[in-house]
Amino acid sequence: MISGNMLIGQSAVRGEDGVLSAINPATRETIGPDFGAGGIAEIEQACLLAEQACDSYRETTAQQRAQFLEAIASGILALGSTLIERAALESGLPIGRLLMERGRTVSQLRLFAKVVRDGHYLGVTLDSALPARIPARADLRLRKIALGPVAVFGASNFPLAFSVAGGDSAAALAAGCPIVVKAHEAHLGTSELVGRVIQRAVADHQLPEGVFSLLMGDGNLFGQALVSHPAIKAVAFTGSRQGGMALIRTAAQRPEPIPVYAEMSCINPVFLLPHALSMRAGEIGRGFVEAMTMSAGQMCTQPGLVIAVEGQHLDKFCSTALDALGKKTAQTLLTPGIHQAYLEGIEWMGNSEGVTTLGRGCTAESPCAAQATLFATQASSFLRTGRLGDEIFGPSSLIVACKNEDEMLEVAQYLSGQLTATLHLDDADHALARKLLPILERKAGRIVTNGYPNHVEVSHAMVHGGPFPASSDSRSSAVGAGAIDRFLRPVCYQDLPAALMPEALQDGNPSGLWRTLDGTCVSA
Ligand code: NAP
Predict the structure, then answer these.
(1) Nearest atom within ligand 1 for CA of residue 186
(2) Average pLDDT over residues 73-86
(3) What is the rounded (10 degree) CA torsion for 266, 355, 345, 423?
(4) Which residues contact 334 (CB under 8 A, 6 or more apart)?
(5) CA-CA distance, 369 to 297, in Å (whole number)?
(6) What tens digit of pLDDT does each residue of 341-388 get?
(7) How confident is the model at residue 168 (pLDDT cuts 50, 70, 90)?
(8) Interatomic CA distance for residues 148 and 328, integer angstroms
(9) What pLDDT digit, counting tens, does each position of 239-250 carry?
(10) What are the CA-CA distances from residue 199 to residues 11, 177, 238, 335 (Å)?
(11) Per-residue model confidence (pLDDT) at position 523
(12) What 3-state class would DSSP assign to 432?
């Protein structure tokens, strides 16, 4: 069923620029079949098809695009255990986690189908002509249109929900943008299976073939060539800060620079406020270890930092957390490269001045398995040593003990951009929370209270983004209905004759959209 081919429009194309192999990280054995790596010719072919598809795809009706997205969702479900088993083999992720991830992938596609039907995303805004005013005002009508072909980089840590048909792809397709996906090398077979579903949905819905291509390529130059292609108008990426920054540089150096929506690194700080800590140190400690080790810590929302005031309650938190940690089995990481980076990260952290290794989980007994590790330091060391706030991708966290509340605020001020910031608090902590909130609002895209940040709800109000280095553009979200905005731009039509007016902007509102008319939101 898996051929090892790329999917370019409606063709299956065997790459001839080398051979790529999927690897089972649990055994480090290769998994067949081999995949042919593509080169510049295949990038050219996919991007040209995407460019040709662009105008007709972006003018498909809401119903057509919504049905297309729903067909992809159904097709993914129809793959059943074939998809889940292949993804488990390639990623080392447990079946249960992958079933949840598939559910999320499907719900993202269905959410965007709803968003497209609903039409709010078009931002339709009409300013009536004022011919008698001096100076006269023209008739002005705004709608948002698709940016153009988007290059999507599959993420290693979400083989389904942030890869071929993941959140970035769903948002771009919903916006009316063709996509050219670069499969992540960690899950080539999973990518092909999902890619075939999209390819079939394109054909079944009589869409232009260039709406979707799936490329597989070896090395940094391949991804950079894709981002450099003049047909590509935006990039979506989840991965390392180094990779994201390289793509941002490539995009900025093009004759026509384009936006790169890169979700990169962060450590999702968790603040334990004094009263809550005094009342629930044990409960919070146990919950924290679950959050820290969930999916082997390979989540962009993994809490990698705890900040609290030192004393007996923080000691209780630490001892409960260590008890829980000691029972945590070592879980397989996604790739040998990620495993190696984790080992280097925890070695570096453990040897850093002022840092103590508090405790570890069960010993790793298979290749690529990671022993969870908890470190501790004083706020003074954290504030002195910039790199202690860097992400270690995997199941590790650092506890920062502060002398008092002022030092806690100082640590908050010192943090770089984050996807999330979490507060454990009670009513008696509100005074401190009022001081922390304005700082954390500047640092993070989502503020979580009395919980953990791992789960990212796919909904309308979700924000999955944040200031650098969490993401490259803090104005946007990579999850939730708002993610579509990344792939749209506004166009204003001034005095356009009625006969040429796009339907969304026509008098009488034939599409029945919510529109802003002379500054007031109206539904008809
Ligand atoms: P990655 O190395 O950033 O790779 C992600 C994608 O970007 C791959 O397709 C890769 O292709 C491409 N890429 C990377 N560097 C590039 C460059 N300089 N130029 C062009 N393309 C480039 O991420 P990864 O493989 O998923 O994991 C490596 C590390 O990234 C992890 O150890 C972790 O630190 C971090 N990571 C963080 C998150 C998060 O959510 N915070 C998620 C995943 C990974 P090629 O390999 O073919 O170049």
Answers:
(1) 25
(2) 98
(3) -20
(4) 25, 91, 92, 93, 156, 157, 186, 296, 298
(5) 12
(6) 999 999 999 999 999 999 999 999 889 999 999 999 999 999 998 899
(7) very high
(8) 46
(9) 999 999 999 999
(10) 9, 15, 23, 28
(11) 82
(12) helix
What is the residue-averaged pLDDT of the chain? Answer: 97
349 close to 392: Cβ distance less than 8 angstroms: yes
Q: Is the CB of 243 under 6 A from ligand 1?
A: yes
> Measuring from atom 5 of ligand 1, which residue has the nearest CA?
239
Q: What is the CA radius of gyration of the chain?
A: 24
Instruction: Let me know: does 12 contact 5? Beta carbons within 8 Å.
Output: yes
Give SS3 for 238.
strand
Is there a single domain that holds both residue 367 and residue 244?
no
Q: Distance between the two ends of the chain, CA-based, in angstroms?
A: 50
Shortest-distance Cα residue to atom 39 of ligand 1: 300
34, 70, 125, 144, 516 from 522: Cα distances, Å? 56, 29, 10, 18, 6
Domain assignment of residue 468, yes or no: no
334 C-beta closer than 6 A to ligand 1: no
Rounded distance between C-alpha atoms, residue 131 and residue 125, angstroms: 19
Nearest CA among 46, 32, 469, 91 for reference residue 222: 46
301 and 414 belong to one structural domain: yes
* Number of domains the chain contains: 2
Q: What is the CATH number of the domain that holds 52?
A: 3.40.605.10
Residue reference for tokens 């919980």: 451
Could you give the CA distance from residue 396 to residue 359 in angstroms, rounded to a whole number? 10
Helix or strand or coil: residue 257? coil
Give the distance, in angstroms, between the CA of residue 90 and the centroid of all CA atoms in the same chain.
20
Ligand 1 geometric centre to CA of 239 (Å): 4
Separation between Cα atoms, residue 402 and residue 379, nearest integer Å: 5
State the pLDDT confidence band at 1, using cuts at 50, 70 and 90.
Answer: confident
Q: Which of 93, 156, 224, 235 for a ligand 1 pocket mutation test, highest count of atoms within 8 Å of Cβ?
A: 156
In a domain, 431, yes or no: yes
pTM: 0.97
Domain of 164? 7-20+29-120+145-264+474-487
CA distance 262 to 241: 9
Ligand 1 close to Cβ of residue 471 (< 6 A): no
Q: Which amino acid is at 310?
A: E
Nearest alpha carbon, ligand 1 atom 30: 240
Q: Which residues are catalytic?
A: 263, 300
- pLDDT at res. 131: 97
- CA–CA separation, 77 vs 99, rounded Å? 10
Residue 420: its H or E element = strand 418-424
